[in-house]
Amino acid sequence: MGDRVYNFSAGPACLPESVLEQAKKDIWDIDNTGIGIMEHSHRDPTFDRVTHETEAVCREVGSIPEDYSIFWMQGGATSQCYMVPAYFLAPDRTADYFQTGKWANDSIDEVHLYGGLHICGSSKDNAYRHIPKGDQVSFSEKPVYVHVTSNNTIMGTEFKELPKVPDGSFIVADMSSNIYSKPLDATRYGLIYAGAQKNLGPSGITLLIARKDLIEKPVRELPKMMDFGLIAKKEGRYNTPNTFGVYLMGEVFKWIKAQGGLSAVEQMNIEKAGIVYDFLDSQDFFTPHAEKDDRSLMNITFKCPTEDLDARFIEKAEAQGLSTLAGHRSIGGMRASIYNAFPKKGCEALVEFMKAFAHEHAGATA
Ligand SMILES: Cc1ncc(COP(=O)(O)O)c(C=O)c1O
């Protein structure tokens, strides 16, 4: 890793090193134009090339069918909390939401501005340790759409299977923290959105993958910057997009392809997460937050016996080049975010550190 540390940040997060090396060159001069990627007009031939390539590789890597639009917006995944109901939810209709953590709640909070809300499954009473399924799920009669947060970045839980939703409705997924970490069947979704800053690139750009027939027209008159159909038609550049973000996502998609595609990336992710989860399962010093069946391949959450030890763990890890392991302030403890670009060696180093720390503090109790 040279002078770089193991970066367990939940996002913005570590990026593939080969992509960063390429970006260093392209920031100075891309395609031998004598102009860097961030200095090109978003309407010139170089950026035409970048836009079309990013879209094409995204489509190829994700096997996204032609009847889906791929485009990008600004405002982060958080802006989709209001854009989604504003676009799809008429005042007399209901949308169903899975309540699986903070980011799901941020989406839920905006729905009343536009129409009816039904919580179709919640793990709130269990501190969001699991994903509701089976008889814990009950849909409203005719939801327009069902919203899932496919990976709960803060809690460390992940939908392993998509719910079967009522006929006539479609799934909207906030995939910010597990997009392209494994193969996906886009046809099961009406709309996918993801802030790029975990698995795809820098912050400040949100990837959207939408069924074309659903974004022909919003259910109410909306400002142009909220019009999915218009932004898609304009290739994500109705106004000036985050040009560097479009470029970097393209490079990351190419990197995923070079790894062998999403199945290969999934295998790598299973292996990496397995190193940490196998250790967690083999000991009783650290307590994992998520229930075993639902735990995330991307964000691993756990605690020491006391908050004091959590703080000591984080500080000592940082000093040893295991950076940004503090859990989100809402649940505390530790969180190891190990997105696609995070190296396997970093997971091994973390486990070695955890073993030594547990040994040193053996006997501590909650
Ligand atoms: C699942 C999920 N949704 C939404 C967000 C918010 O994203 P943004 O900061 O891009 O608005 C995050 C950020 O960590 C997230 O993990």
Secondary-structure blueprint of this entry?
Layout: E1 6-7, H1 17-28, H2 45-62, E2 68-73, H3 76-88, E3 94-99, H4 102-110, E4 116-122, E5 145-149, E6 151-152, E7 157-158, E8 170-174, E9 189-195, E10 206-211, H5 228-233, H6 243-259, H7 261-281, E11 287-288, E12 299-303, H8 307-319, E13 322-323, E14 334-337, H9 344-360
Parallel strand pairs: 1-13, 3-4, 3-5, 5-8, 8-9
Antiparallel strand pairs: 2-10, 6-7, 9-10, 11-12, 12-14
Helix pairs in contact: 1-6, 2-6, 3-4, 6-7, 7-9
Proper CATH architecture of the largest domain: 3-Layer(aba) Sandwich
Oligomeric state of this protein:
single chain
Total helices: the number is 9
- Uncertain runs are none
Tell how many strands the DSSP assignment holds: 14
CATH superfamily of the largest domain: Type I PLP-dependent aspartate aminotransferase-like (Major domain)
Assign the CATH class of the largest domain.
Alpha Beta
Mean pLDDT: 97
Structural class: alpha/beta
The radius of gyration computed from the alpha-carbon positions, rounded to a whole number of angstroms, is 21 Å
Bound compounds: pyridoxal-5'-phosphate
What would you note in describing this structure?
With about 375 residues, the protein is α/β, with parallel strands linked by helices. About 35% of the residues lie in helices and about 15% in strands. A hairpin with a 4-residue loop joins strand 6 (about 150) and strand 7. Helix 1 packs antiparallel against helix 6, helix 3 runs parallel beside helix 4 and helix 6 packs across helix 7 (about 260-280). The model has no long low-confidence stretch (mean pLDDT about 95). Pyridoxal-5'-phosphate (PLP) binds near residues 76, 77, 78, 103 and 177. Pyridoxal-5'-phosphate (PLP) binds near residues 11 and 153.
